[in-house]
Design brief:
- GO terms for molecular function: heme binding; metal ion binding; oxygen binding.
- This is Hemoglobin.
- InterPro entries: Globin-like_sf, Globin/Proto, Hemoglobin_trunc.
- This protein has 162 residues and is mainly alpha-helical.
- The chain has a domain at 28-140: Globin-like (Orthogonal Bundle).
- Helices cover 67% and strands 0% of the residues.
- The chain is built from 7 helices and no strands.
- The longest helix is centred in the C-terminal third of the chain and has 25 residues, at 116-140.
- The radius of gyration is 19 Å and the shape is globular.
- The relative contact order is 0.12.
- The model has no long low-confidence stretch (mean pLDDT 94).
- It binds protoporphyrin IX containing FE (HEM).
Length: 162
């Protein structure tokens, strides 16, 4: 019945870490749920990034559930999320403008729904992940970004005489 000792150790270390992160930041699962739900409400109604989500996500509840697990893993290091976000983003028709808007909405929601220290904890992590997704998307489109450079897709093809 009992787990192997090193599994027990790992599980005990994990829950100690989660407790420590919760104590330091005040973040818990209820706060994560408030942040995620409020954020995607804004996302869905947004003219810049809303359509990218609404064209692809037909069932929102499973997506919200995944995102709560994701943020639990990222913010509390709970290990609750087991997906791989990068491949899901590589085919999306997005660039720096979409990431800027995503972060703007995320930051506004975090500052509105979380105490300041917790909000900054979420925002710092979101910024880092957004940067790495943008880098990945640029790479998937054959563009190698220099440090700090942003990925901007060429606008509509222009032909002489138009
Ligand atoms: C331009 C900004 C973004 C857009 C338009 C976008 C859009 C999407 C869409 C449409 C999906 C669903 C894909 C699918 O299930 O096939 C998705 C999944 C996901 N997104 Fe984003 N995203 C953006 C930025 C971000 C950022 C900055 C993060 C993290 C901080 C993030 C985290 C995730 C995660 C974890 C999933 C996968 C959930 C799962 O495992 O099912 N996204 N995103």
């Amino acid at each position: 019945m009992s787990e192997a000792p090193d599994h027990q150790d790992a599980a005990a270390r994990r829950s100690a870490m989660v407790e420590q992160m919760q104590a330091e930041t005040g973040i818990d699962e209820a706060m994560i749920a408030r942040l995620v739900d409020g954020f995607y409400e804004r996302v869905r109604a947004d003219p810049v990034i809303g359509p990218v989500f609404n064209d692809r996500i037909t069932a929102w509840e499973p997506h919200l559930q995944q995102m709560r697990l994701f943020w639990s893993s990222v913010a509390l290091m709970s290990g609750a999320y087991h997906g791989r976000p990068m491949p899901k983003h590589l085919p999306l028709p997005v660039d720096a403008r979409h990431f800027d808007r995503w972060l703007e909405l995320f930051e506004a929601t975090a500052r509105e729904r979380c105490p300041p220290l917790a909000a900054e904890h979420f925002i710092e992590r979101a910024q880092r992940i957004a940067e790495s997704l943008e880098l990945g998307i640029a790479g998937a489109n054959g563009v190698l970004l220099a440090k700090g450079e942003r990925y901007v897709r060429p606008t509509e093809a222009w032909s002489p005489g138009e």
